[in-house]
Structure prediction request, 166 residues.
Amino acid sequence: MQLVVGRIGRPHGVRGEVTVEVLTDDPELRFAVGASVTTDPADRGPLVVEGRRWHKGILLMSFAEVFGRDAAEELRGTMLVIDSADVAPSEDPDEFHDHQLIGLAVETVSGEPVGEVTDVLHHGQDLLVVRRRGQDEALIPFVKPLVPEVDLEGGRLVVDPPEGLL
Prediction:
């Protein structure tokens, strides 16, 4: 499974630099000079990082394959991705990567099936998107009181929803 670690934005200057929206907690590792980065769509890459610098809080990058502003503009909207197998597990037992949660079966604390996690949204608070059988999707805040148990080995997570959430 691929994980998005960045999104290429607008060109910066005329030499082919681009702005990058950073979607990883370790940009220095993911975007190290000399690293080859896979892209989505795949036909735009892979791209080899030639340069990386921060400018007014924005990551600017240059790639060995990109020469000039026009070539940089063609990359706008390209996602920079890595294989989820390349992500080391967290040392914190209460921290999870999105790809670990997607696909888990969801059940209530009383064992009643709810559905399956199909996505994780990050909008100020992490939200689990749960597909329910024959019903609308449910958005469940990913906080300990509402999600008391995540069992990766068992392929499930347990929710304790307040009345009306589901």
Summary: DSSP finds three helices and twelve strands in the chain. Residues 69-74 form the longest helix (6 residues). The chain has a mean pLDDT of 87.
